[in-house]
Amino acid sequence: MGPIYTVQDFLDMTRRRLGVILFVILGGCIAALYWAQSHVHVYRSSEVIQIEQPKIADELARSTVDGSSARRLQLIEQKLMARASLEDVIAKYDLFANLDALKPSERVDLLRRSVSITGVAAAREGFTDDGTISVLTITADMEEAQLARDVAHEFADRTRALMADQRREQTEATLAFFSQQEQQVIDALAALDREIETFRSENDLLLEGGVEFRLAEMAQINESILELDRGIITAQLARTQIDRGGRASTVERAEQEIDAQLNSLTQQRSLLVARRDELRDSVQSSPETQRALAAFERRREQLQAQLEVVATRRNEAQVGFNLETGDQGERLTTIEEAQVPDYPITMSKKRRAIMGGVAATIFAFVVAFLLELRRPVIRSARQMQREVGIMPVVSVPTLEPKFQSSKWRMQREKRRLAGKAGRAARLARQS
């Protein structure tokens, strides 16, 4: 059965358990004061950074920095929260110097939990989320107001520097890659041109349209050979028509002249025949030569097309690099610098002490109630009528012998007896 049903029951319980209640309240208040005094205030400072879009539209000058701003900021946050970066900040500002018992890893973890980086997504264009961040907030919670401001500003500066370095490195790497690719294609074209030139030189194809030229040259050589044959025949006829009846010296001189002419014509004919045979051999091998030249030309066209594509990409990379070096691309600007906070974000010590006292009082009455539940005794006529339904006729109070009375009663009895003896002594003196 429950002992508390009315306000009178509650007051009776309070009187009976007053000692326990006061003891618990006193102990709880002492603990609350200690808790309030031992608590360290925490100050919070935030710096707000705006992510500005490129000043020049992508349709006019496209940046070569790939990926959304949210993804890039996520990579930057990972670098900021790395162990080496946090240890550098701890050493720079001598953070947690009063916590000598903390290990370096515990200090790094404490700083990691004390600093937060949050981003606000930009307004969507259409129905898709492009991952663009418009505002970045860097917050630091520290035990000192100035430290909170310094740490928040330090992380903001590092974020801006990492963002600029990341974009610059990406544009430089893109430009260097396409410049290298362009140079490789140019070198390949130059090597192919040298190979074609060597092939033409080896196959006597220095002039364009070499086969047609050889055929025309062979026709001219044949005509020249015919002319030489006619000249040889004419010289031979002239030799047979020499007048043998003349002087011997005259005849001999005429024969020598004709023989010299025949030798000259024969040598010329031999040279022309040799050249014609050479041309005939080269013309006979021209199909293989033409196929080889066609293969060279196809390779050259492929390299030329590749060079055009790479040159276009390299020009775009150069434009992106110029945008970043000219500070015309995406950048971070501070719209609200971190300030020294005026008040801590934690609860005041006075409020903590009051809350502790209230909690101790509630706990004291809970303990008293539990003690009452432990011994559910009927202590009054009201309780008997309520619990049993019987109205008691007589209520006999608890009678204690005098020797069992409290010290307060004994002191009062002593004072009463002393007063009675004093009055008797005064009456005796008067009589």
UniProtKB/TrEMBL annotation:
The protein's name = DUF874 domain-containing protein
Q: Which residues cross the membrane?
A: 18-36, 353-373
Kindly indicate whether the keyword Transmembrane belongs to this entry: yes
Q: Which PANTHER family match?
A: CAPSULAR EXOPOLYSACCHARIDE FAMILY (PTHR32309:SF31), TYROSINE-PROTEIN KINASE (PTHR32309)
Keywords from the UniProt entry:
Coiled coil, Membrane, Transmembrane, Transmembrane helix
What residue ranges carry the coiled-coil annotation?
Answer: 251-313
Give a yes or no for keyword Transmembrane in this entry. Answer: yes
